[in-house]
Amino acid sequence: MACTLSHKDKDIVIINIYRIPSTSPNGDRCSLTQYNLKDGKVKSPKEYRTEIFQQIKKYLSGLKKVDDIIIGGDFNQYIADKEV
Which residues on neighbouring strands pair with residue 13, listed in sequence order? Predict the structure, then answer.
């Protein structure tokens, strides 16, 4: 989920990322399972996170003006990773 807020000639983008666990007690309601069912193929959480980061970059590059970006949520990834 992403949205852009504007006020007094300043634009801020707020992006929320949710966790994609590889296992869950929720079985078929696990977000990884839901992604795999939607895509019709099995991918790892890392592959989905990479796709999500690519989508974020694409979304941000399409905006005309961004003063600040806030990314919140559960990256489920090491904060020092090059990708993050």
Answer: 4, 69
